[in-house]
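Researcher: Final request for today, and then I'll write up notes for the group meeting. The sequence and the SMILES for adenosine-5'-triphosphate follow.
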Amino acid sequence: MSDIGGPGGDNVKVIVRCRPLSDMEIQQGHQMAVEVDEVNMRVTANNPAGEVGEPPKSYTFDATFGPNSKQVDLYNRSARPIVENVLEGYNGTIFAYGQTGTGKTYTMAGDRSVPEKRGIIPNSFAHIFDQISKSGDDKTFLVRVSYLEIYNEEIRDLLAKDQSHHLEIKERPDVGVYVKDLSSVTVGGADEMDKIMTLGNKNRSVGATNMNAESSRSHAIFTVTVECSQLGIDRQQHLRQGKLHLVDLA
Ligand SMILES: Nc1ncnc2c1ncn2[C@@H]1O[C@H](COP(=O)(O)OP(=O)(O)OP(=O)(O)O)[C@@H](O)[C@H]1O
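Model: Predicted protein-adenosine-5'-triphosphate complex:
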């Protein structure tokens, strides 16, 4: 997870979550090879095929979550500060990284139909609009989203009508690196944002769960831009903009 430009702390945070063994893994007699110490933010790996007496290896991260960790606790510790900084006008990026079957989709999306199993993406959508609804009358918010896919080194706009069109990367001194002509959709609530993401997912080159050589080349970036206009003590409107990038790496 990275929290670029936010106040305080390191800009990049690495958080490790170990999922529980699946029923099949238990049936096959597998055992956990790692121990997670959430208090000391440490993961200890034992080599089951190692020689007798081989010492376990310990690694320390910015936070660690064990097999019984709850989605809400993970959200509060990892994503909540990033989303809060986005609302304050900073940029932040969240992505999950790991081998197939390690729990990336569970952590990022989760099971939307069960509130306590919702992952970072639906929780961040709800959080953004919840904070906006609680903000004072002196602030006006505008929330926009865009969704692009990088596939075979080409960029496609997942929210565009014409999916055959490829977009170009450009750079400008005032805005930095950007994707030219990428569509941007204004969103009024978490459910609407969820629908737009689902629509974009349908336009992806290969289904996200279809693990093969093709899907391993498809990356997607869902960007939420939050603009806030606030009346200052100087009676002038002050504009600030933060972006949250949710990345699905191949
Ligand atoms: N923290 C967790 N608690 C309970 N079950 C989990 C957890 N993490 C993952 N699982 C379960 O483990 C299985 C694999 O997880 P998931 O599909 O999220 O992996 P993935 O890393 O996204 O895999 P792929 O790269 O193949 O898409 C799923 O059945 C999921 O529900």
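Model: The two ends are 16 Å apart (CA to CA). The pocket of adenosine-5'-triphosphate is lined by residues 19-20, 22, 98, 100-106, 209, 211 (CB under 6 Å).
Researcher: Thanks, that's everything.
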